[in-house]
Write a structure and sequence with these properties.
Helices cover 65% and strands 0% of the residues. With 96 residues, it is an all-alpha fold.
Amino acid sequence: MQSRSPSVLLTSYAIANGMAEHGMIVRIMQHKATKTDIARLIAIDHNTWQLIRQAAFSPTDANFRLADGGIMQILDYATPVPQPAVDGIKPGLAAP
């Protein structure tokens, strides 16, 4: 993990943030988001940013794992994207 560049974490963070913001906006527009949901996402985002900074300044496996965990928490707020079924191909299997 230490061989990863901090820019990889920053890119993942930026993508996850965009996906989570979209998901939260959708929930707000549908009147399904509460103040607690919004505050929790803001707190998770802040904590994840701190973890990414720590991993950038001190690139250890533990710091990268913590930062990755924060990114995964942010992604919990993303809009689910259904995966299309492909005729004859099952996900995870190589084509003949």
